[in-house]
Amino acid sequence: MHASLCANGIVFHLSCPYTSPQNGKAERILRTLNNSVRTLLIHASMPPNYWAKALAAATYLLNRRPSSSIRHVIPYFRLYNSYPTYDHLRVFGCLCYPNLQATSPHKLAPRSTAYVFLGYPPNHKGYRYLDLSTLRIILSRHVVFDESTFPFARETHPPSTSSFDFLLGDDLDIAPLFTNHAAGGPSADAPSSLDVEQPPSMPGGSCSIPPPGPSASSSPGGRGHVPPSGPSASSISG
Length: 238
Description:
By secondary structure, the protein is of the alpha+beta class. The chain has a domain at 24-158. Helices cover 20% and strands 10% of the residues. It contains five helices and five strands; from the N terminus they run ααααβββββα. Strands 4-3-2-1-5 form a five-stranded antiparallel sheet. A hairpin with a 7-residue loop joins strand 2 and strand 3. It is elongated.
């Protein structure tokens, strides 16, 4: 292999162990694909085991948009010398209804049923679908899409972001999440019963806040009346 590379003017170099940045642009495109796969799966509420279908769809879309690495030229155009079409693109993981009339058992059978759109087959001019009841994948050209409905979001709960950690690259900065896992102890953020001021209990068993005590300006009767500072009205002669 080394002799074949040298004969074609190719210099063969190895990167240092655990030094992925030395691989150059190959690592950057992998990060772009990982971000696209994660976005497609989370948007469709699909579990991570469908990552291969999402990767194929992400690659299909990446080859049909301008790339900064080749001066914003479309990779599809560089390969086939013609511009791609975009009117056939659909939302990954959406609800769809393919025409099943050709495979129906009898004339009164339903002509279609609910499927999940899984992308574009490489060797056919059509679409790839998944039957949720049988988990069988079929190919079809005639189909009606409902791009605002996602069957996986109705069947299961949306997957958490942590379930896609296998798609994270080594060059991403992820902020750690600290959680108090002390057994039987209170949470670090939640106040304990000793930190909350409790109102005093009344003899009757009910809890109420007592009225404030008499102030220095209140009269002995507790009515809050302040006597005049001058001579009383009875000491003034008429």
